């Protein structure tokens, strides 16, 4: 089992004090971002961040039943996905959800990054980069051959973020079949 899977905290020193956002008013020691696997104790704050992502994307948030499934699928003995929160002090300010697929051509696992989100007041301070780097390190430890993710067409900021980190836009079409159609 990986140290990350054993809920060991990863401490990342914040390399900013730009004067923007509410966290810069805190003492330097309190500016440290801690990335921690979602637990029963942090799950409600994690769900709140998912609601904030839905608001940002102008989508309906998960309903009560979906939130129940999110909890069960995250916290079970055999989780269907991995979730991590980024904390500043006691406040959850960011999260990532990922899971693993498999590449038949590489014959290696692929880390699929489902969500990465940072609260508006905490953006442009390196938190998203640290959350993404956490996923990169997880993929390395798991021996993955690649990391894949999707970005909304209108989210130019996210596109630039990933392209700056050498991600390539693919020439594939993304399709979806919902359960009412199968």
Q: Notable features of this structure?
A:
single chain, 182 residues, alpha+beta, Aminopeptidase, 27% helix
What does this structure look like?
The chain is of the alpha+beta class and 182 residues long. It has a single domain, classed as Aminopeptidase. The protein contains four helices and six strands. The protein has a six-stranded mixed β-sheet with strand order 1-2-3-4-5-6, with helices on both faces. It starts with 9 loop residues before the first strand and ends in an 18-residue tail after the last helix. The N terminus is likely disordered.
Could you write a compact summary of the structure shown?
By secondary structure, the protein is an alpha+beta fold.
Mass-distribution shape: globular
**Number of separate domains:** 1
CATH architectural category: 3-Layer(aba) Sandwich
Largest sheet: 6 strands, mixed
Q: Helices and strands: which structural class?
A: alpha+beta
Write the layout of secondary structure elements.
Blueprint lengths: L9 E3 L20 E5 L5 H14 L7 H12 L6 E7 L2 E13 L4 E11 L8 H15 L4 E4 L6 H9 L18
Parallel strand pairs: 5-6
Antiparallel strand pairs: 1-2, 2-3, 3-4, 4-5
């Amino acid at each position: 089992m990986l140290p990350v899977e054993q809920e060991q905290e990863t401490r990342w020193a914040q390399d900013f004090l730009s004067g923007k956002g509410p966290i810069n008013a805190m003492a330097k020691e309190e500016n440290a971002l801690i990335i921690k696997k979602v637990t029963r104790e942090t799950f409600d704050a994690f769900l709140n961040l998912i609601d904030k992502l839905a608001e940002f994307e102008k989508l309906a948030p998960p309903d009560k039943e979906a939130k129940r499934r999110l909890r069960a699928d995250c916290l079970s003995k055999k989780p269907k996905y991995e979730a991590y929160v980024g904390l500043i002090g006691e406040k959850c300010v960011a999260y990532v959800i990922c899971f693993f697929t498999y590449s038949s051509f590489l014959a290696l696992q692929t880390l699929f990054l489902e969500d990465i989100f940072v609260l508006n007041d905490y953006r442009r301070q390196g938190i998203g980069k640290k959350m993404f780097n956490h996923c990169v390190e997880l993929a390395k430890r798991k021996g993955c051959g690649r990391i894949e993710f999707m970005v909304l067409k209108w989210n130019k900021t996210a596109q630039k973020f990933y392209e700056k980190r050498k991600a390539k836009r693919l020439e594939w079409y993304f399709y979806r079949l919902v359960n009412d159609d199968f």
